[in-house]
Amino acid sequence: MFARRFRHSLCWLIGLSWSAIGLTGAHAEEPFQEFIEALRERQYFDAAMDYLTEMSKSNLVSPEIKSILAYEEGRTLIDDARAEKDNTQKGKKLEAAKAKLEAFIAASAANPLTPNARMQLGNVIVERGRMAADLATRPTQLANKAALNQQARDLFDQGIKVFDDAETNFKSTLDQFAKFIDPSDKATIEKRDQARRDYIQAMLYAAATLYEKAKTYDEKDKAQAELHKKQLQVAADKYEKIYQAFRTRLAGLLARIKQGQCYQEMGDNRRALGYYADILSQPDELPDFRRLKASALYLSLQCWITPAERKYELAHTKGNEWLRTARGVEDRQPDWLAIRYYTAMAMRLHAKELDPDGKGQGKDGGLAKNLMTGALDHARKVASIDGPYEDPAKALLKELNPNQTDKEPATFVEASERGKLEMDGMSEAQSLAKEAQKKPSDAAKVPEYLKTAAEHRANAQKYFELAMSLRESDSEQDEVTNVRYYLCYLRFLQKQYYDAAVMGEFIARNYPDNGGARQAAKIALASYLQEYNDKNAPQE
After folding, report:
1. Which residues in 428-439 are b (16+ Cβ under 10 Å) and which e?
2. How confident is the model over 271-290, as pLDDT tens digits?
3. Distance between CA atoms of 159 and 128, rounded to whole angstroms?
4. What is the pTM of this model?
5. If exposure means fewest CB atoms within 10 Å of the residue's CB, which of 64, 174, 368, 418 is most exposed?
6. DSSP structure string for 29-96
């Protein structure tokens, strides 16, 4: 019975992402491009690679699709590498991407995607540049910082050349099309549109790499500050060119935002805010426009709360207005989390301006207190979601409510936050134990570190279980699902495999769009497999 459930769950979990694009019916035409894009967008890179492997053996796709599978594998590996935090693994994925793209180019010289594949090789180079630039920021690499930044710049220059060549080639291809094409000639129209898309993409890649190169110059170093500013200007000029050519398209509006970001980093907030205002004045009915406006707004909030602007009230008013318009799970996206975080910062700064001593007295004392309460609420929400603003929000929480750990949680949010703090403590203790194991002189500390990790693990489970008991009908479903995921993970660590499997499958099956769904599916598969192996192990 268990084996049958294991096989059923395995098949269902492998096919989990198919439902993400509404594929129904055994004889439906395989929506290959939509499906692979959906997997990459959700960062299900391992599932995407499995899918591409399956399609290479399937008769559901045409020979034309099969001929581009290596190209799609290369693109997927590049996206996977971008999301990878471990530089060793990132390097391996980039090398694999390079091999796939080169194999595609060698086998498909006449394929229309070959020029794009060559351009994607530029992305491999740029990602290696980002690896070097990231390494240069680490305290342990202080002695190598200058050399690493120079290495990054050399790689960025190589990538820029690839993109510039691609831009020239795609522009030449685009210019070959007649200005008027018969609307019934859909094949020619598609070829022209693809050439335009490739041309725009090459320019955006080049501009983004120019911007990355600017960050390799230390703006705090007198000798490099001018180089930093000049490189930002070069990137801004490139974005201006894109905007002027395609101002009525999404790519042009995106370039406008990026141009503003360049000027913002140059210290010209007024000019940056003018560019962001161009975007914020756009309609937001379509999801793509909403994403652009969210980017423009969080960057505007950054400008408004600087010491030069001090427009705190404007910032939190605009931020709160936008957050109230959230649709579905929009407010869990990175730019939306940024808006919430900077709204909290604006409310805190405004409160301190109204009530410097924090006593809550005087005519503005009540307003300041309300602002601090609002800032605390926003910070809690951001701190509860994995992402780039999770740690800054936790730091803000600690500042806003330094005594928050002195009493037992009384709400779902408080309990889940406490559970996450215990998870952080567990991870830190485990890391210390791992490092101590490498040094004979520290070996004696390992048992103590492991004991500390176990205590944090037990506390985390206690608080997450408390959070589930405190949840109410208005608790945000994604946050509840996140708590379930942590409990699933903790039960797996404690070898409670069946409980972990059931919880993981529940999350993956019922909340596939949740950020932890993919990992929950992996835990479920690993747990079912462990249970299966345990039940079928030879008896001694």
Report:
1. ebbebbeebeee
2. 999 999 999 998 888 888 99
3. 10
4. 0.70
5. 64
6. ---HHHHHHHHHHTT-HHHHHHHHHHHHH-SSS-HHHHTTHHHHHHHHHHHHHHH---HHHHHHHHHH
